[in-house]
TrEMBL record:
This is Site-specific integrase. Residues 222-412 form the Tyr recombinase domain. Keywords: Coiled coil, DNA recombination, DNA-binding. Residues 61-88 form a coiled coil. It comes from the Bacteria. It holds the Pfam family Phage_int_SAM_5. InterPro entries: DNA_brk_join_enz, Integrase-like_cat_sf, Integrase_catalytic, Integrase_recombinase_N, SAM-like_dom, Tyrosine_recombinase_XerCD. PANTHER family: PHAGE INTEGRASE-RELATED (PTHR30349), PROPHAGE INTEGRASE INTD-RELATED (PTHR30349:SF64). Belongs to the 'phage' integrase family.
């Protein structure tokens, strides 16, 4: 074994005879041979040396009585469980060991517990949006488990979620007006939790309900929302009724003109990113997903320079736009960006309605409109893929697969324009 576990009386600093009558903390000692590291965990128990020797070192289980016997059994249970958790790991790791030891024995099979592990981990890594996705899924599961299955979410186990359970969940979601896309997102998120539990040896593969001949997650084809050339022209020439609508329109086209730049990336853009007639940034959405970080370079135009000039913070000491502050933590940033996005979407919809444009337009349409218009102008898939910072060409092709037939026809015709 690469570790050694024992129960000890921590008498460090107390070596004299006069100290033997003093109570000292009883601890779980774990020594990693590979790491040559010793850690001691407090067990919220204090004993004198004589008491510890009687209960643990020289104990005759049959001779122990009442409280001493209870204490002995408690310590033995702790040592046994510590050995079980350590033995379950292929490679001993203090962090994983601590995570498993200091929880209820039932937590390993508990869906609620593993959801909160995922939520906490993402919050620690400043992935606020991902943490929110886990929360939304957990709330949906809670509603179904408690109302339909009559099982409190805190008691829901992985073993209870089988193929039939998932089919019932899907059926209930659709009956309550949820889209196939929402069902797909929530069940994929639940699958992540199953995979996490398996990865830390809390769950066996035999209880995995997803995959071939099991529950199949609904596959939905994303409908790419993009404005046609005529609609883009109409929106650009539209006369806003007030400054809020003007701002929404300007930021929508700023995103469009910057290769469909995401609102979060716009909010986090700094003056230090701007060099002459261009600026560079890393896309926040994909930054942590790949080992190789790809910098995106955007060339400024008269329009985009105008937006920076009109809405940019004048002292030029930090962020370009007044969306987030330099001292905001990730949670505050997330809320501010979400509120700003909602504000823009609300006002761009008003412009759309007044100009007979699609009323479900949003800031996300700017990204797809950039991609679509690039295709219309004959840009190669490789160019669009690089501009959108896609991980590979297949992602870009999936964009094209979702565009309207007219776009495909225009693209086909354009290749004969020599």
């Amino acid at each position: 074994m690469s570790f050694r576990i024992s129960i000890v009386l921590d008498r460090r600093g107390k070596t004299g005879k006069e100290d033997e009558a003093k109570k000292c903390p009883v601890k779980l000692r774990v020594f990693s041979k590979a790491l040559k590291k010793d850690k001691r965990y407090n067990l919220d128990m204090n004993l004198t040396k004589a008491e510890f020797d009687t209960i643990w070192i020289n104990a005759d289980n049959k001779a122990l009585r009442s409280s001493n016997k209870e204490t002995r059994l408690k310590l033995q249970a702790i040592e046994n469980r510590a050995n079980e958790e350590a033995n379950a790991m292929s490679v001993f790791d203090f962090a994983k060991f601590e995570l498993k030891l200091f929880r209820k024995a039932s937590d390993k099979n508990n869906v609620y517990y593993h959801f909160h592990l995922a939520i906490d981990k993402n919050l620690e890594n400043d992935k606020i949006s991902t943490a929110e996705s886990f929360r939304y899924t957990l709330n949906s599961l809670k509603n179904f488990s408690e109302k339909i299955k009559k099982c409190p979410i805190e008691r829901l186990t992985f073993q209870a979620i089988d193929v039939d359970w998932l089919k019932d969940y899907e059926k209930d979601m659709i009956a309550n007006g949820k889209s196939f896309t929402t069902v797909s997102i929530y069940t994929r998120t639940l699958r992540v939790i199953f995979n996490n539990a398996i990865a830390v040896n809390d769950l066996n593969n035999e209880h995995y309900p997803f995959g071939k001949n099991k529950y199949k997650i609904l596959r939905t084809k994303k409908v790419k929302k993009a404005l046609s050339s005529l609609e883009l022209k109409t929106l650009f020439k539209a006369k806003p009724d007030n400054s809020n609508e003007q701002k929404a329109k300007d930021f929508w086209f700023f995103s469009y003109a910057c290769n469909g730049m995401n609102l979060k990336d716009i909010a986090l853009l700094k003056y230090s990113d701007i060099k002459g007639d261009q600026f560079s940034y890393y896309r926040a959405k994909t930054f942590d997903k790949t080992a190789e970080k790809t910098v995106i370079t955007i060339y400024l135009t008269e329009f985009t320079n105008g937006v920076i000039s009109n809405y940019g913070i004048k002292d030029k000491s930090g962020y370009v736009f007044n969306i987030v502050d330099n001292n905001d933590d990730s949670t505050v940033q997330y809320k501010k960006i979400k509120n700003f996005t909602r504000y823009l979407n609300d006002h761009i919809k008003r412009i759309a309605k007044a100009n007979a444009l699609p009323e479900d337009i949003s800031t996300y349409w700017a990204r797809h409109s950039f991609a679509t218009n690039s295709v219309r102008k004959g840009a190669s898939m490789e160019f669009i893929s690089e501009a959108l910072n896609h991980s590979d060409l297949s992602v870009t092709k999936s964009y094209f697969a979702g565009f309207e037939d007219k776009t495909k026809k225009d693209f086909a015709n354009s290749i004969m324009d020599f």
